[in-house]
Amino acid sequence: MNSRRGFLRDLAAQAGSAAREAAARSDLATAAAQVGSAAREATSEPSAPEALALSDAELERYGRQLALPEWGLAQQAAVREARVLVVGAGALGAPGALYLAGAGVGRLGILDDDAVELSNLHRQLLHFTPDVGVPKAESAAAKLRFLNPDIVIEPYRVRLVADNAAALVEGQDLVVDCSDSFATRYAVNAACCAARVPLVEGGVTGFAGLVMAVRPGETACYRCAFPAAPAAAPSCAEAGVLGPAAGVVGSLQALEALRLLGGLEDGLLGGFLQIDLLEPAFTRVRAMRRADCPDCGAL
Ligand SMILES: [Zn+2]
Asked: What is the model's pTM?
């Protein structure tokens, strides 16, 4: 397995190197062809799994991420096969879903039961002025399909609550929680822990944000880190928020999601990133699993 992984890394590095050299000559077609050539060589190997075969269009669309030494054909194939649920198509879900769709997540669920309001538009950039009144799940799905018609977008016009969380999380490879309430976050966390589905949590208020990655049963879950909701948690309507602050947090959630799907380094597993964008300052905080955690203590 390790030698196989090493082979894929070498292959990805070769393809990435070829792409960078060609791109430096502004010869994008050559870059795509060379990456494609490397991919075809890989798939012609008897031991190469079928999932690694990417079309020429995919190799061109994803060429700049495939050029990364950390992101090769194996990672691209993994995200293409992945089923990811984004909970909330608002301030965090908009950038989060855009980056996940752009990166090629094969099946992307967008869950939101709200309709677009004028006051959303300064930070929820998946929705445009003519979308006011349109269900956010549908508005988001329409834009994401334009962005990447090669993936499946599944809009869900429902609110995730404790009663339906298990059914919504079942069968997902990853959940990205972009909701805006502690009740929803705890419901998502409990369902993900029960189903052992990896989770990326996030939140933003004012200039402050937080991102946390969870691998249930292995690393601290959201409730391990935050056993109870704060007594007074102001909403964005009360505390205000600048659009780019939400953009930073949602983008970091997408990055953590891709990291987990692609099997990169551990990132924000086992803790969270505390973000103060007024300062600005980013602080990593470790979080330990709690044996008495009602969500993951028994796993
Ligand atoms: Zn826990």
From this structure: 0.83
